[in-house]
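Human: My hope is that you can spare some time for a protein that puzzles me. I am handing you a single protein, as its sequence and its fold in token form. Could you go through the record with me and say what the backbone is doing? Take your time, and here it is.
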Amino acid sequence: LDLDKKGGIVRKSECYKTGEILGMGKNDVDEALKYFEKVGLLLHYPDDVPDLVFTKMDSLISRLSRLITASFITPGRCVIAPYSRLREKGLFKKSLLPTIFEDL
């Protein structure tokens, strides 16, 4: 598992594959992820983006920045509803998250 190639974002399924190579079951991998998150080595949001594990915070911040930037770019006077909420209130729905991770 080459974290540098992945830009600090890894699919949970890849964690399971690596765990399997190391003789770990899925529960063991889940517990390891919880531990590494607790000690500050990674971030994992199982309720929001359950299949992604963030090992480099700058990568996550960069993607969130792109989402925020996109909310201020409006071609002509057209405003896309999910982005207008972000622009006007600083809030976005969970449904926008896949758009910033779709290339993974």
Observations:
- Residues 19 and 66 are 32 Å apart (CA to CA).
- Strands lie at 9-11, 43-44, 52-54.
